[in-house]
Structures are given as C-alpha cells and as structure tokens.
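Fold it.
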Amino acid sequence: MGLVGLLWRALAVFRVGALGYVTILVATRFPGYAHPALGWLVLAGMAVWTGFATWAYALPRRRRWPLLAADLAAAVGALAVSYWVVGPEDMRSGAATLPMAWVAAPVVAWAVYAGRRAGAVAALVVGGVDIAVRGGGGGMFSDAAVSYLNASVLLLLAGLIMGYVARLAVQAEQRLQRAAELEAATRERERLARGIHDSVLQVLALVQRRGAELGGEAARLGRLAGEQEATLRALVAGDGAIAEGAADPRTGDLLDLRAVLNRFAAPDVTISAPADPVSLPAPVATELAAAIGSALDNVRVHCGVDTPVWVLVEAEPEAVTVTVRDDGPGIPDGRLAEAAAAGRLGVAQSIQGRMRDLGGAATVVSAPGQGTEVELRLPLPA
C-alpha cells in the first residue's frame, strides 16, 4: 500500500471515530433537542453512510467524483437537519451541530483525491451551510459567531493542508518508483556488462591486438575493432556517447550533435555540419548518434571498410535531418524485409526503431549499384 492508500485508510479510521464521538454526544444531549427522534434517525443515517463510504473508498476504482459528491451531500444534509433537531434558538446561540467533526471527512476526501483547491472548495461549502444553519449567531463578533467561524476556518485549513500533503505523497511515490526503476536498470546493465566483458569486449580486444601485429588490412580491421570496443565499454559503463566538449547525457543538459558525431570521423567518413551548434536534449542526441553509428556500421560490414561515407547534418527550425550516404553496391529490393524476417534487425531496430522511439523517422533509399542513402529526420518541439 502506497502513501496515498495510507491516507485513505486514515480517513476511514477518522470517519468511524467521528461517528463514535457523535453517538456519545447524541446519547448525552438528546433530551434537550427540539426533535430527539429525528436526531436518532439522522444518526442512524450517518452510521449507514459511514459503513458504505468506508467500503466504497477502499478501492481506488470507486474513488470518483460521483462518490465524492454524494459524500459531501450526506455531510451537508446532516448539517442542515441540525437546524430542526437541535432547535433554531440553540443553533443561533452557538450549540454544537448534530454531525460535529463528522462533516470533515468529505472535505479530507476531496483534498486527498483532487488536491488542496478541491479540499478548499469542499470546506467552503460545508462552512457556508454551517453559517446558514446558525442564522447569524447574534452578530458577527459575538462569542457564538466567533466560535463557529473558527470551526469553518479550521475546516478550510484542513482541506488545504491535506490536499498539499496528498500531492506530496503522490510525488514521493512517483520518485520512489523512478528510483526503483533506475536501480533495477542499473543492476540489469551491470549484469549485461559482465556478460559482454566476458565475451564481446575480449574478442574485440583480441582482434585489435592481432590486427596491429599482422599489419596491412588486418591493422585496419583491428583499429575498427578498437573503436567499437571503446564505444561498447562507454555504453555498458553508462557513459553513453559523451563526447569531448559535450555535456553529460546523465545530467539532462543539451548536447551539441556536432561534437557527438566527431567520434565517427575517419579518413573514409566525411562529416558535414552547420557552423552553429546543433543543440539537442542529451538523451535525444545520444540516441540519434547511436542510430547514425548503426548506419555507419552497416556500411563497413556490407560494403567494406574503405567505402567512402558522407554524413550531412541539416538543422532547421522545425527539425534536424541527418543523411548518411555511401558509394557501396546498394541494397536489392526486398532485402531489408528479408533481413528483418530472419531476425537481423540492424536497420529495423537500431536505426528505424530508435528514430520511431524519438518521434522521428528513418528512410532508406537504395538501388543495386547506386549506393545507399539513410535519412534520419527528427522533428523538434515548437
């Protein structure tokens, strides 16, 4: 049970306790009431409603406006009947109303459900009915008037404070849930990091070392393996795509997309970007860079490590567009669909899936013998 659930349970306890207090008052004072029988009838109705409300508020799906409105109407009705039960003269002289503190329950319920404004509205309704029932109380500054005005003010403060506490409870639960999710994600990343370190990273390190020893084309492959090893190590360590001169993605700051793409620069990779910074939220820039990196990896795997690649970054007021073009052999018609059906999801997930999650789109244009062009377009918020 969360913090808000505990507030609803506390309200149920308060409602039952307030009913018990009202019962004691009625039992000791009913001989002096103008209509004692009506008082007992109202008390019975309050008991029935207390049982129903305790049951109804127990489940979140039943805590809706109709129940809240009925709860407030029940309190207002019991308060209004006090005029006839207790008697007009006694009410004007400052006698206690029949339901007493029991009328605070719907005010608290409104505050817990919808916040301090709703609680204040409910308190004003109850307080207004209380003042109307008493009919002035012998003057604004009489002892009787000050007494019931104090009760109305306290009820208003209770609505405001309980609404504020309820909102704090909701925020605390949300933060606790996010912390739990972050802890779970961190543990999963650590588990994956151990597995990757024991397999993929060691293989990449071996390829890099042996490639450097063999020289020639193998050295080129070794250098690429070393680059991928460094990127993967940063990823499993939680550093993402932190680039020199760029902000840390974990801080929620902005990243300059140009700085993030600098790590892809190579003799066969030409990066063209605007002279002005292309600032994006850190998580967005990191994911966009990962999609671009996947496109470049596809070129190396399917076209050869020496295939020229051009990366063009275009910044517009409404969108950022990144185009990755190569002079490779191109992609035959239907090849991407076949790869996705076979479980090879490099384009479908690493590129198109990432862009879809960011709210953008990835378009692949290719033909045999004419190279491939991957356009990544990311709309920007107004």
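The chain has two domains: 3-176, 250-379.
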